[in-house]
Design brief:
This protein has six helices and two strands, in the order H-E-E-H-H-H-H-H. It is mostly helical and 166 residues long.
Length: 166
């Protein structure tokens, strides 16, 4: 791994961490439910760097959990790592390198399903109550939906600038 890749992953991890702090708690959906912007940054990272976004999501989002909800740190590392990796692979398929609106949207939707299922299983195990886990998936759905909308808008705005500067 090159120094440039390590720095890129570090920067994107810090952005995922900071964006996860931009959150709205949703206690009526479960004890640790919230909507946050970390997923938005994860999706943008996948479009910018491909599967390396898995590291950014895993590190940034799990550090947030380590500070505020430590029981989620390891599951988040796995879930967000897998989510970023898969989204990055999808958006870079067929030499599109994050330049296809439709392919990006498909990647974001697949990544959202990974997150939804991952946190449903995590919440079910942590709380020992699958009803609580099911209700808390509403927070995951909101976070993913917001992440998809914001990421698509931001990527549409910045992609031409990035392509021009390359």
């Amino acid at each position: 791994m090159t120094t440039k890749k390590i720095v890129r992953i570090g920067l994107l991890s810090a952005l995922c961490f900071a964006a996860t702090f931009i959150r709205i708690p949703l206690p009526f959906l479960g004890p640790n439910s919230m909507v946050h912007l970390g997923t938005t940054v994860l999706f943008i990272s996948a479009v910018l760097v491909g599967s390396e976004a898995g590291w950014a999501g895993a590190i940034g989002c799990s550090l947030f959990d380590l500070m505020l909800m430590p029981i989620y740190a390891i599951p988040t590392f796995i879930i967000k790592g897998l989510q970023g990796y898969v989204v990055g692979k999808i958006v870079f398929m067929n030499n599109k390198e994050g330049n296809s609106f439709v392919q990006n949207l498909v990647g974001f939707l697949v990544g959202s399903i990974i997150s939804l299922l991952g946190y449903f299983l995590t919440d079910g195990i942590i709380y020992g109550n699958w009803t609580t886990a099911l209700v808390s998936t509403l927070g995951s759905l909101l976070t993913s939906g917001i992440g998809i909308i914001f990421a698509m808008i931001i990527i549409t705005l910045i992609r031409p600038i990035i392509n021009k500067s390359s």
